[in-house]
Design goal:
The protein is an alpha+beta fold. The protein is 25% helix and 22% strand. The protein is built from 12 helices and 19 strands. Strands 12, 13, 14, 15, 16, 17, 18 and 19 form an 8-stranded antiparallel β-sheet that branches. A 5-stranded antiparallel β-sheet has the order 7-8-11-9-10. It has a 4-stranded mixed β-sheet with strand order 1-3-6-4, covered by helices on one side. A hairpin with a 4-residue loop joins β7 and β8. α7 packs antiparallel against α9 and α9 packs antiparallel against α10. The longest helix is centred in the middle third of the chain and has 15 residues. It starts with 5 loop residues before the first helix and ends in a 14-residue tail after the last helix.
């Protein structure tokens, strides 16, 4: 493949120019090019050009042009989960980036309990649009992420044990494939693409819109409590108690536990700033008395620094995990665990607890299972429903610790290797190499995805980013 020339890009600009003379193509230095900067600013994303797509036709024309010229196309919305993409990298110098942020229309149909989302919609928009009807989407822990990228990775969130993957509720996609053709994709129309888009990330093309089911859900019982983790014995007691409590939770309950080291910044609540703490997250869709009684053993573990567990409107779902919203440079590591025996908790305490020397912002264990572990109505490309727990570590690449953040997080996942399934969730694999990323899928799923990619994108236009190819 060849690097696009000025003449090539001038021709593309002509394809993407409106009758009023405006264009959606941005070259380096042009207004709009900076939207390529991802949420994780440690990732360098500097393509040859950015297409600020406003319509499905913009994307279709871009892909058709790129395929004809032997170029490649990547896609991005908020930049959460972005992989590196630089024009200085010879292997990636021919890449155009389609940015979907302007395609942010949300339509709610309260009669059919469905939503139609443009490719650039973030979950918070859907939450706010659905709330007046007493409806809600199944979202992740951070409502500021793009809906489409989350759904194509399956979508694990604070209610996954209760309702399964977010992608289980998708009814239809609109998709631009490798020749620039726009297709409607459902369980009965292009069903092989419907299988692959739910879990296959960007392998099969660029999603321009999605239709999904909403739930009649206006609120939940949950939130988080935070305990001081300065004492190793106390922290060990808390983690082991949480492990035992989490083993047999009913499907209406979801939980994770995390060891935090939050910096003393204005956005951080003072009781948590500059110290090691343990946060226990919880959601339940059961009636309040039942949900509160189930969580009571966790409240009994000690006097919380903060207790924010109680009845909540669905619009507050982001408060359960309280993920950071501002862009920052981070390094992440994740692994899936088949089980969480007491020995695994001891290992987590050894590498991430008090006295470990950990510099990680967060080291989290999340309980999986429940409805998530069940096969969905329509088969999909998500491969790891059988995992019992997940482990995730993330650290800020501040100059004074940048050199040790990633190796230390890798040492944490290595310490859990005995219980690891060897797999990863697609939405937690952006820090993996291309060779490692294939472990997001079992062998048969990986081969089927790659075969579909060869069929619908024989020119390799989408052979960049979070994709599966032969």
């Amino acid at each position: 493949m060849s690097t696009p020339t000025v003449n090539d890009l001038a021709e593309l600009r002509e394809h993407l120019t409106r009758p009023d003379g405006t264009t959606v193509l941005a070259l380096p230095g042009d207004p709009g090019y900076a939207v390529a900067t991802p949420w994780n600013v440690a990732k360098t994303v500097t393509p040859q050009a950015v297409v600020l797509a406003e319509t499905a036709e913009d994307i279709s024309r871009t892909v058709a042009f790129a395929t004809d010229q032997g170029l490649r196309v990547a896609v991005q919305c908020t930049g959460h989960g972005a992989t590196g993409l630089t024009a200085q990298d010879v292997e990636k110098a021919d890449v155009l980036l389609v940015h979907t942020g302007r395609m942010n229309d949300v339509q709610i149909d309260p009669q059919t309990l469905t939503a139609r989302l443009g490719a650039g919609v973030i979950w918070q928009q859907v939450i706010e649009a659905a709330a007046p009807y007493g409806l809600a989407p199944i979202v992740g822990s951070a409502p500021g992420v793009g809906a489409v990228g989350f759904l194509t990775g399956g979508g694990i969130g604070p209610l996954s044990r209760t309702y399964g993957l977010a992608s289980d509720l998708v009814r239809a996609f609109e998709l631009v494939t490798g020749n620039g053709e726009l297709r409607r994709v459902t369980a009965t129309e292009n069903p092989e693409l419907f299988w692959g888009l739910r879990g296959g990330k960007a392998t099969l093309g660029i999603v321009t819109a999605v239709e999904l089911e909403l739930l009649p859900l206006s609120g939940f019982y949950g939130g988080a409590i935070y305990l001081d983790a300065g004492d190793a014995e106390v922290t060990g007691r808390v983690l082991h108690a949480w492990r035992a409590w989490s083993l047999n939770l009913p499907e209406h309950a979801n939980t994770s536990i995390a060891i935090f080291q939050l910096p003393p910044l204005p956005a951080v609540p003072p009781p948590l700033a500059g110290r090691m703490t343990v946060g226990i997250r919880y959601t339940s869709t059961a009636p309040e008395p039942e949900a509160a009684e189930l969580f009571a053993p966790m409240r009994a573990l000690g006097t919380p620094l903060i207790d924010a567990v109680g009845p909540m409107p669905f619009s507050a779902i982001g408060a359960v995990h309280a993920d950071p919203v501002d862009p920052m440079p981070v390094a992440e590591e994740a692994t899936l665990l088949s089980e969480l025996p007491t020995e695994a908790v001891d290992e987590i305490l050894r590498v991430a607890g008090p006295g470990s020397g950990s510099v990680q912002l967060v080291a989290e264990i999340r309980r999986l299972g429940g409805v998530l572990a069940k096969e969905p109505e329509h088969a999909d490309a998500f491969s790891h429903r059988e995992a019992g727990y997940s482990f995730f570590a993330a650290g800020v690449l501040a100059p004074e610790i940048a050199a040790i953040v990633k190796p230390q997080a890798q040492a944490m996942t290595a310490a859990l290797a005995r219980w690891s399934t060897g797999g990863f969730m697609p939405n937690f694999s952006s820090d993996l190499t291309a060779a490692e990323r294939v472990s997001s899928y079992d062998e048969s799923t990986r081969k089927r995805l790659a075969d579909l990619a060869d069929s619908y994108d024989p020119a390799g236009t989408f052979r960049v980013g979070q994709v599966v190819r032969h």
